[in-house]
Design goal:
With 164 residues, the chain is α+β, with helices and mostly antiparallel strands. The chain is built from five helices and four strands. Strands 1-2-4-3 form a four-stranded antiparallel β-sheet. Helix 1 crosses helix 3 and helix 2 (23-40) packs antiparallel against helix 3 (80-97). The longest helix has 18 residues, at 23-40. It is globular, with a radius of gyration of 16 Å. The structure holds flavin mononucleotide (FMN). The site of flavin mononucleotide has 12 residues, from strand 3. Flavin mononucleotide is lined by residues 11-12, 60-61, 103-108, 126, 140.
Length: 164
C-alpha cells in the first residue's frame, strides 16, 4: 500500500483485536519514530503491550483492546502542536501501510507515567492508539484542503509542501 492509498483507506479505529504487533513491524515503526524525533525535534515514544492507558470508562469515545500507542511528547514550544500533528500523521499513515489501524486521542486515556519518559520542560500533547482493528471502518465523505486548512502566507513552508 502506497502513502496515497493509505490516506484514502485510513479511518480512526477505537476497537482492537487481541493480536500483538509483529517484531518486524515494531522495528519499522520505531525507526520512523526515531526519524520524526530527529527531524521534528520531538520525543515521541512507541509503547507496546501496555493495556492500562485505554482501560475503563471514558467521557468521550469508547476504546477497546488498545495495548499499543504512540505518546506524542516534545519540548514546550509555540509550534509543538503543529509538529506533533505533522509527524504524527506520518506515523498513522505508515501504520496504515503496514496493515495497522490508529486513532488520535487527546482526552480519553489514562496517564500511565511509568510507560514513557517526559522531562519537566516537555509536554505530552496527545496519544495515538495503534493495533489491529476489529472494524475496518467505513468510508467518510472526503473534504477539500480549503475545508480543513486555513493555509495562508504565514503557513510554514514545510506544512504547505506536505509529504515527508
Ligand atoms: C488531536 C486529536 C485528539 C483527539 N482526541 C480524541 C479523544 O480523546 N477521544 C476520541 O474518541 N477521539 C478523539 N479524536 C478524534 C479521532 O481521533 C478522529 O479524528 C475522529 O473520530 C474522526 O475520525 P476519522 O479519523 O476516521 O476521520 C481526536 C482527534 C484529534 C486530531
Amino acid at each position: 500500500m502506497t502513502l496515497q492509498e493509505a490516506i484514502a483507506a485510513r479511518h480512526s479505529v477505537r476497537k482492537y483485536i487481541d493480536k500483538p504487533i509483529e517484531e518486524n513491524l515494531i522495528k519499522i515503526l520505531q525507526e520512523k519514530v526515531d526519524e520524526c524525533n530527529k527531524v521534528g525535534n520531538l520525543h515521541i515514544q512507541l509503547v507496546t503491550n501496555e493495556p492500562k492507558a485505554f482501560k475503563g470508562k471514558m467521557a468521550y469515545g469508547t476504546f477497546c483492546g488498545v495495548t499499543n500507542y504512540f505518546v506524542m511528547i516534545g519540548k514546550k514550544a509555540n509550534d509543538l502542536s503543529e509538529r506533533v500533528g505533522y509527524y504524527g500523521e506520518q506515523l498513522v499513515l505508515l501504520a496504515q501501510t503496514l496493515g495497522l489501524n490508529t486513532c488520535w486521542v487527546g482526552l480519553t486515556y489514562n496517564n500511565i507515567k511509568d510507560a514513557y519518559e517526559k522531562g519537566n520542560d516537555e509536554k505530552l500533547c496527545c496519544m495515538i492508539a495503534l493495533g489491529y482493528g476489529d472494524d475496518p471502518g467505513r468510508n467518510l465523505r472526503r473534504k477539500t484542503v480549503q475545508q480543513v486548512s486555513n493555509a495562508s502566507d504565514i503557513t510554514p513552508a514545510w506544512f504547505k509542501k506536505g509529504g515527508g
